[in-house]
Design goal:
Helices cover 50% and strands 9% of the residues. By secondary structure, the protein is an alpha/beta fold. The strands form three sheets. It has a five-stranded parallel β-sheet, with helices on one face. Helix 14 runs antiparallel to helix 16. The radius of gyration is 39 Å and the shape is elongated. 31% of the residues are buried.
């Protein structure tokens, strides 16, 4: 009977587990030192090795001839556990055995000593599915089990476990496996199965698997069912990555404000029985890729696609700003939420595209702020943005009209100096702080700055401060000026102080006029 690759190639030793060395090494050390805990909790996303490590630990605990913490896989106990002949190792699916009665039966079984193995090991998978009553019934046994009983709990949703359970277990967090590690493991499996696996195809499978080695092996198994030679094109076709041309077409319609073209594509997809909510989800993923390309220098490791599709995404991302992509994602997220509540998903999809392709029709705060920012940028640079009305028929492009050159400012005080400082503040805060109390005047081709701060001249000469100031001036006025500093005028000499007149002198003069001789000391 044929066995799936993920079952056939499941590791049976800690050394064979991929991408979880921080966990397997700790477990091996505990086994060698004979310092095993009575209860373990394995958490992590799907396909990362939780159940595999639980089975290896169950064998290693009972192995008759362990090797550096690994089970020998050759003794009678190891072979019996693998085949299911030894009943001292019990694997329980908590999704279907989640009641209080199931846990009570388990608790009664712990009173019996193991028949063939050294310890009775209970592996409870998806333990978060247990009911509250089942958790309460498990608490006492989990805290103080018999010496020959070990519990291994596994879950993908650890946040659903009560704190009383978490505090009684030794917890291990399984991380998502790196794409390179998954690709290496796939190469080993392909070699053992006589499958020709291209390295790029292996990396693509790893990225599609999103850190889950089991999913990667299942996808490789599916590809091998079609051909013994696995190429990126085959992986793309099997994983459903192909046939996404309509996403690029819709994104191009949004970029060009082509509302009629977008609605026509939606009509074609609706006629072909395309689910509108699924389309919206795909578009959100598409614009997420564009956002990553705009925000990250090397986006290939964060995007699941072929190399050719990545080139198309990078080319399309050049026509968007990061702020525009974030606004589109917000509109699409709102549309997806409305589709889950509404009755007509097509109308919700069409409404979203009308908003995205007709900026004037979108009255949301985000859209208005985006339009205001674009208008401010156009006014500061002296470029008049022409409003384009959407039409159902394509029209020939009108010849580009060169905007008139900005008129130079009249000589005298610079009325736009406050706006220039605000423009400078966004790019050079230290220079803005130095010029905060300054004034400026226009003198022909110069912008002359007067400031009480004596360090203005030194700051203009340092780094790119002068260039930043010139850019701010150009952004506001649309003209290029040279920067000058107002020289302090030399102060005129102060007049000599006038000596104060002594009132006694006046009295003496009056006395002399009257013929009176007064002697002063």
């Amino acid at each position: 009977m044929y066995r799936a690759l993920y079952r056939k190639w499941r590791p049976n030793r800690f050394d064979d587990v991929v991408g979880q060395q921080h966990i397997t090494q700790t477990l091996q050390n505990e086994l060698v030192a004979n310092k095993l805990a009575h209860a373990y909790l394995f958490t992590g996303s799907r396909g990362t090795g939780k159940t595999t490590c639980a089975k290896i630990l169950a064998k290693a605990v009972n192995c008759e001839h362990p090797i550096n913490g690994n089970p020998c896989n050759e003794c009678e106990v190891c072979r019996g556990i693998d085949s299911g002949a030894i009943l001292d190792v019990v694997e329980i699916d908590a999704a279907s055995n989640n009641g209080v009665d199931n846990i009570r039966d388990l608790r009664e079984e712990t009173n019996y000593t193991p028949v063939r193995a050294k310890s009775r090991v209970y592996i409870i998978d998806e333990v978060h599915m247990l009911s509250i009553g089942a958790f309460n019934a498990l608490l006492k046994t989990l805290e103080e089990p018999p010496e020959y009983v070990k519990f291994i709990l596994a879950t993908t949703e650890v946040h659903k476990l009560p704190a009383t359970i978490l505090s009684r277990c030794q917890r291990f967090d399984f991380k998502r496996i790196e794409p390179e590690d998954i690709a290496d493991r796939l190469a080993t499996v392909a070699e053992g199965e006589d499958i020709i696996l291209d390295r790029e195809a292996a990396l693509l499978i790893a990225r599609v698997a999103d850190g889950a080695l089991r999913d990667a092996l299942s996808l490789l198994d599916q590809c091998a069912g079609q051909s013994d030679t696995v190429t990126p094109e085959l992986v793309s076709r099997v994983a459903g990555l192909t046939g996404r041309e309509h996403l690029f077409r819709l994104a191009e319609c949004i970029r060009q404000n082509d509302c009629a073209g977008a609605l026509k594509i939606i009509d074609e997809l609706h006629t072909a029985s395309c689910d509108m909510e699924r389309l919206c989800t795909q578009l959100i993923e598409h614009y997420r890729n564009l956002m990553i390309i705009r925000a990250v220098n090397h986006p290939s490791g964060l995007i699941v696609c072929t190399s050719s599709e990545l080139e198309l995404l990078e080319e399309q991302a050049k026509g968007y700003t990061l702020e525009g992509i974030m606004h589109i994602l917000s509109v699409l997220e709102d549309a997806a939420a409305a589709m889950r509540k509404g009755t007509n998903r097509r109308i919700e999809a069409e409404l979203a595209f009308v908003k995205l392709c007709t900026p004037n029709a979108d009255t949301s705060v985000e859209a208005l702020l985006k339009r205001v920012a674009e208008l401010e940028k156009a006014v500061r640079s002296g470029v008049a943005a022409a409003a384009s009305a959407p039409s159902d028929e394509a029209k020939p492009a009108a010849p580009a009209v060169q905007p008139p050159a900005a008129k130079p400012l009249p000589n005298g005080d610079c009325a736009q100096w406050a706006d220039i400082l605000q423009e400078l503040k966004a790019v050079n805060m230290p220079m803005f702080a130095i010029l905060s109390n300054s004034t400026a005047r226009v003198q022909d081709q110069y912008l002359v700055i007067a400031s009480p701060n004596p360090s203005v001249g030194a700051m203009l000469k340092a780094n790119n401060n002068s260039a930043d100031l010139k850019k701010a001036v150009f952004g506001v006025t649309g003209c290029r000026y040279r920067i000058g500093l107002e020289r302090p005028t030399e102060a005129a000499p102060a007049p000599a102080p006038t000596p104060e007149r002594d009132p006694l002198d006046d009295l003496l003069k009056e006395a002399k006029k009257m013929g009176v001789d007064i002697q002063t000391q």
